[in-house]
């Protein structure tokens, strides 16, 4: 840390919180790629709310291609992006940078130049629990970014910060090596130890891309409607009809 010549007071720098951990297991690229063909809401159904990120983290621009990759985690103090910049030089091809920025909104966590370098290094995307900037530039080179908003002001770059540790992003605890999947429907984290189970659940669900893919939807919904009616009746629903 660079000390001023005469601060007039004792500066305090945290004793913990400056750490880079690159010693974690990643799932195979083949396993990660299996999730590219799955519908994000179907993945969410099986990982549940505990591993579906809050809707406040949105695509930075639309349309945006799907992001699928291995979580490379970063934890920073609100507004300081030193470790985000460092992470972009350490992550491996296929990784998704997941940044715990504590949801702050005063400073962005970086800009387009950083992500152009990341794209050229094979990084798959960026997820930030905080704001980002330069979205029109980032859209021009088609790099997926999810954030809590856009903020042009940049913050300090002095640390502390941690890389390769468990983080909280969008209300979800993400460990390095987990699988991140997201598109315009939202973001999910698949814990690495459950990846095979989620694949088994999702692989038999057909993707429905247009009206012709829903041949039995009317009949199935008749059954569901009857069930909903029974639940409401048991709960004592009051129905007021037009006279």
TrEMBL record:
Function comment: Catalyzes the aldol cleavage of 4-hydroxy-4-methyl-2-oxoglutarate (HMG) into 2 molecules of pyruvate. Also contains a secondary oxaloacetate (OAA) decarboxylase activity due to the common pyruvate enolate transition state formed following C-C bond cleavage in the retro-aldol and decarboxylation reactions.
Pfam families, per database record: RraA-like
Cofactor requirement: Mg(2+); a divalent metal cation
Protein family per UniProt: Belongs to the class II aldolase/RraA-like family.
Protein's name in the database: Putative 4-hydroxy-4-methyl-2-oxoglutarate aldolase
Catalytic activities: oxaloacetate + H(+) = pyruvate + CO2; 4-hydroxy-4-methyl-2-oxoglutarate = 2 pyruvate
Native source organism of the sequence: Salicibibacter cibarius
Molecular function, one GO term: 4-hydroxy-4-methyl-2-oxoglutarate aldolase activity
């Amino acid at each position: 840390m660079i000390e001023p010549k005469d601060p007039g007071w004792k500066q305090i720098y945290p004793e913990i919180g400056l750490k880079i951990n690159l010693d974690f297991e990643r799932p195979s690229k083949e396993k990660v790629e299996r999730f590219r063909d799955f519908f994000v809401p179907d993945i969410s159904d099986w990982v549940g709310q505990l591993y579906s990120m809050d809707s406040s983290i949105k695509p930075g621009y639309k349309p945006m291609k799907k992001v699928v990759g291995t979580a490379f985690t970063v934890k920073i103090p609100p507004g300081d992006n030193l470790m985000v910049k460092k992470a972009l030089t350490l992550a491996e091809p296929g990784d998704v940078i997941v940044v715990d920025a504590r949801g702050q909104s005063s400073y962005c966590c970086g800009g387009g130049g950083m992500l152009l370098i990341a794209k050229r290094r094979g990084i798959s995307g960026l997820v930030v629990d905080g704001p980002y900037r330069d979205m029109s530039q980032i859209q021009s080179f088609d790099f997926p970014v999810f954030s809590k908003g856009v903020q042009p002001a940049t913050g300090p770059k002095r640390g502390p910060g941690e890389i390769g540790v468990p983080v909280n992003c969008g209300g979800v605890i993400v460990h390095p090596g987990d699988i991140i999947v997201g598109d315009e429907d939202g973001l999910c984290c698949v814990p690495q130890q459950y990846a095979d189970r989620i694949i088994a659940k999702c692989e038999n669900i057909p993707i429905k891309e247009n009206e012709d893919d829903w041949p039995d939807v009317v009949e199935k919904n008749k059954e569901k409607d009857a069930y909903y009616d029974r639940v409401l009746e048991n709960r004592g629903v009051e129905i007021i009809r037009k006279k």
